[in-house]
Design goal:
- With 143 residues, the protein is α+β, with helices and mostly antiparallel strands.
- It has a single domain, classed as CBS-domain, CATH 3.10.580.
- 43% of the residues lie in helices and 19% in strands.
- The strands form two sheets. A three-stranded mixed sheet has the order 3-4-5. Strands 1-2 form a two-stranded antiparallel sheet.
- The chain is elongated and about 70 Å long.
- The two termini are 26 Å apart.
């Protein structure tokens, strides 16, 4: 029993156009309690990501006006993505090696969603509980 990225991907995420202001994006992020926004290309593949850290470091800390800064100015374009068929351990390894809290999941170039560190932890607990239960049933006497 292996967990794959497609099994735990979060499909509830925010996408916005690159010309959206940081103020608009921040409001949407606050309302929906998300820490990031994905900026898709015309074909639906991810072009960039803006995180709460990007807003703090590139807008607030620099004293820039959020209503005048566009997402395209601060987005990270070197998005780390994993394939929907990658195992959860591989996803966790990528996140650890890169020092990131979220990865984009793609299937044949199409954006499926995002996996966060929080998602992995919750999924692993559930997974371990299921495997432990199966082991217990197999070890129980047959009579």
């Amino acid at each position: 029993m292996v967990l794959f990225a497609r099994d735990i991907v979060e499909k509830d995420f925010i996408t916005m156009k690159p010309e959206t202001t940081v103020r608009e994006a921040s409001r949407a992020m606050a309302e929906r309690k998300h820490g990031f926004v994905i900026i898709p290309k015309e074909d639906g593949s991810p072009e960039g990501i803006v995180t709460e850290w990007d807003i703090l470091a590139k807008v607030v800390a620099e004293g820039r006006e959020p209503s005048r800064v566009r997402l395209q100015e601060i987005m990270t374009t070197s998005i780390v993505s994993v394939d929907a068929g990658d195992g959860i351990s591989q996803v966790a390894q990528v996140m650890t090696e890169r020092g990131i809290r979220r990865v984009v999941v793609v299937d044949h170039g199409e954006l499926l969603g995002v996996i966060t560190a929080k998602t992995i932890l919750a999924s692993l607990k559930e997974y371990v509980d299921k495997v432990s239960s199966q082991i217990s049933r197999l070890q129980a006497p047959w009579f």
